[in-house]
Specification:
13 strands; elongated; ten-stranded antiparallel β-barrel; single chain; mainly beta
């Protein structure tokens, strides 16, 4: 069936970025964490894995909220200095979803669905010298976020396959606070008195708000049968014949991240990410949100002048 082939194709897209990222690792630089020149830029290859709790509903098929649990895998490349920051990353999401339905002893509602997502993200930030200090680095800039959703729910029969493409040009603001331990510190635990060594750490908060929001959505419903014109009508053209571009809606995402730098120039972090979007399309809106706990490894590949 067309749905099964599309599902297999989308799964291949999910794992390809992660496999590709392993082939671009450079030589690690062990002393690059000691940064004294503001123009010195550190280059990182990022690998992230996270547990996500997505929520969505699509009024073109069902007003029910679908909630679930899933896995995010992300590969990214970060160029970071005191004055400027650039990042490009590819993120994939795969989640099992179920509808939130009223309880009933007569009808047992079913509708387990698969939710897949592919995100491409690019962002540039510049430092605001006037508002920054030795501890706080404040940057502003912009970002481009491209999202492709794919949802499969056989309980919706003719509307089993749901697709939407979302493009957002976003305004970005970031504050990074240096919370490093600069001196050795002893802890008195009576029987033991461990000594904590100096360590470089950052606490980062990022806010992205969509200012130009474009989406590619169907009409009133997904079950639209377009004309079949001999060999000119392929499966892709037939599936997307009812789709149109719209300029509307909103999107917002935030990230709170704790970063710890290692002596060899690498780093690792834990972060909480919250995202929400409202995509009206032409007629029936699609809404989605997610809560995400993410662990990231930063591999420092080189250091140069930005």
């Amino acid at each position: 069936m067309f749905y099964n082939s599309y599902f297999k194709f989308f799964i291949s897209l999910i794992f390809y970025p992660l496999i590709f990222s392993w082939n671009v690792f450079g030589q690690l630089n062990s002393d690059s964490i000691q940064q004294t020149d503001k123009l010195a830029a550190n280059y990182y290859t990022k690998l992230s894995a996270s547990i996500t709790h997505p929520v969505y509903r699509d009024f073109a098929t069902s007003p029910l909220f679908f909630r679930g649990i899933g896995l995010n895998l992300t590969a990214g490349w970060l160029n970071q200095s005191d004055l400027r920051e650039r990042i490009f990353q590819i993120e994939t999401v795969a989640a099992a979803m179920s509808p939130k339905t009223p309880k009933s002893d007569l009808i047992k509602a079913r509708g387990l669905s698969f939710f897949g997502q592919l995100n491409a993200f690019y962002q540039e930030l510049w430092k605001l010298e006037k508002f920054s200090s030795s501890r706080n680095n404040i940057k502003i800039g912009g970002a481009l976020l491209i999202t492709q959703n794919a949802r499969i729910n056989r309980g919706l029969q003719n509307n089993a396959l749901g697709l939407e493409s979302i493009y957002n040009l976003m305004a970005s603001a970031q504050i990074k606070r240096d919370i490093s331990r600069r001196k050795k510190k002893k802890i008195n635990l009576f029987l033991f008195k461990p000594e904590l060594k100096p360590v470089k750490r950052d606490l980062r908060f990022l806010l992205n708000i969509g200012v130009l929001n474009v989406n590619y959505r169907p009409g009133y419903a997904y079950s639209y049968d377009s004309e079949l014109v001999g060999t000119e009508t392929g499966p892709v053209k037939w599936e997307f014949d009812n789709y149109k571009w719209s300029l509307n809606g909103w999107r917002i995402q935030t990230q709170l991240e704790y970063i710890k730098y290692l002596n060899n120039g690498n780093a690792r972090s834990w972060s909480y990410i919250w995202r929400a979007a409202h995509i009206p399309g032409r007629h029936e809106a699609f809404q989605m949100a997610s809560h995400q706990i993410q662990f990231t490894l930063f591999f420092n590949s080189k250091k140069s002048k930005s």
